[in-house]
């Protein structure tokens, strides 16, 4: 500081002084007065500062700021002769020349006026700092003076015309306008908050309210997030139109997410010509597990991509580049899927493996829950699977797909096959084409549904080629079986189908052929009403080959029934 001041009758009076404060030039003048009850000090300040060069803000924030702000202020200090000191400060400025590329609501172009007013009233123990930015943003805070400056409580209110009252307990409340959460996370990842706690102490109880938060390719509406310390970490509560959940961020244990309700329907931009499933992560870059915690997820009611899934549980552990899933569960109420597995996220050797069970009492109800119709009705289902492939979990790669699937269906009915999702699944083994041919050849028999007691099968997949040879469909009046292979990469098949009318057919004949278990409707039996032509047939054999979209079905054997001796 440089300049002159004079001493007149016990009072001090300065001329304009110049100084440097926070690496910025400062103009100062002051005066003192001996009052009847207190010694009074008055200070006038003004400057034109560049916020990015004060060495106070984090580097990530400095990089987003440019320009300067002209400001002026007044400081009044009372030093009572028989009491503690008090003081007040008022600062006024305009951010018209400041350009900010920080996330909204702190983004601002240069040339846009934004008046700022800050007031301080305090003593030697504490002070209250209040103010406003523009006409609609007000803030109120209380600070404690001790060995370290401590923020006791504070509130920021956007879209507010008056000063909000302080929170009832220690903490920070942020009532913000709509925000882009991804931009804020990116700023924090650059270290925007790393040096904030160096000179002061801040409360750990934080509440954020916003009418809309954009995060994870979804808008979260009417959202409230509360973070508070616990004996073993931090508890975060989130409530809004799309979520009602808590997250216990435990210090020496897996994080625990208890989700009462979640609706997640991200809007992911599709790349041209890309028909692969979208990643559940909001980035196309390689996912890095570094810093990920082990987690336990318990969701009572979960919706994804507009579809209700019901209850979802999972335990996730991270080891290097491997994510391990245990106790995975999806329970819709109509079906129950369990899963264990791992995802090795190594770009040179990426691999996904999953195994578990799929259970349900009615396969048609389970399928209709997801908006899919199936020709199989009233049948219970029990599937064991063990699969692995060399891509991400949401990108099963046919060329590297390997594994085995065991399937068992209980008593049910196969009705008419329609188009849609069910038809697409049945087309995998050309069952729809085979059924049309049987209906054409034996229209009296196949005019109505077919009832069966059970379907049992095993299918194994080797490098994208699916094989089956031990499946048996036990129909009430007949058995139909298929065996062979389907190349999932080339999308062609080579199958053999056998129809054996009447359940009196020998077990050796019925068990010698297999049906693919994947689609659940790969085999058909004769109808419950045997037609005149059908009743004269003992065995039908078909060969099915060619592309899945246009298979060729050829009858290779029609063995007549032997008449019983009179």
UniProtKB/TrEMBL annotation:
Alphabetical list of InterPro entries matching this protein: YhdP, YhdP_central
Domain YhdP central: 2-553
Pfam families referenced in this protein's UniProt entry, alphabetically: YhdP
Protein name (record): Membrane protein
Organism: Escherichia coli
Gene name as annotated: yhdP_3
